[in-house]
Automatic annotation (TrEMBL):
Record-annotated membrane-spanning stretches: none
Any one biological process term the GO annotation gives: alkanesulfonate catabolic process
Coiled coil listed as a keyword: no
Protein name (Swiss-Prot/TrEMBL): F420-dependent glucose-6-phosphate dehydrogenase
EC numbers for this chain: 1.1.98.2
Amino acid sequence: MNDVRPFRFGVVAESVRSSGDLVALARRAEELGYATLTIRDHFVAEPFGEQLAPMVALTAAACATETLRVGTMVLANDYRHPVVLAKEAATLHEVSGGRFELGVGAGWLREEYERAGMAFDAPAVRVDRLEESLHLLRSLLGGRRTTFEGEHYRVRDLTVFPVPDRRPPIMVGAGSGRMLGIAGRHADSVGVLPRALPEGAISEEITERMPDTIARKVDLVRAAAGGREIELSMQVNPVFGDDPRAVAERVARTRGWDVPADLVLEMPSQFVGPPEHIAGQMAARRDRYGFSYYLVPDHVMEEFAPVIGMV
């Protein structure tokens, strides 16, 4: 590849439960050279534990740092009307000095919808809503006066304030074929994920993690992008150890995968071994698939940091 996108790395704030911990984590991530701090969007404890509200928490993180970008990973579209979200995103972009990145998805956790008394509509309906929302978010955050007539949202002669001097980057998390196409058409950055299941869970099928599957998903994104430059990202959980093969065997046992270590070592989402080996894996997978933005959970932030200086 002649025109290689530079790597950048982010931290997912999974274990933060207080404002003090959040600010400390943000400042340490900045010191270590991470590009972003992100927060997921759940209001039930599962599957990642209790968490702070993302937009408010990210405002505090932005105010406590100088260069660190902050982002949502990712907001469930059904939890906020896109006009309200555009207003909040524009405000956070302003407060952060242009360091906000808006990640959105269709929503997938049935338990969360049901416990909140919200209708968990069929996947096609939730995805339809997301695509309409993306049209609105791109237009409003792009500073355009917007009129839109869709099946789910209707907006007339509306602008957003404050008007961003540059539209915040939009990330879409996607795993299914249709979602990958929507992400390719509308997003600046695409988080490639295992597919969400209609019953309201994320697929644990090992086929979702195979090289051919990831290559196919990347091809779907690129085809939908139509030559538009787009960033490919993935959330990963590196596992460290001196012997990559031994670590891969341990990962397979932990995940309940009845596969050899060689297959784990080939999975695009699996990074195992010492830091220098993981750095080499990332460089090779950027060349093969195009991934240049990796996010790691906060509990491995310190251990992973040496990799940042190796790629």
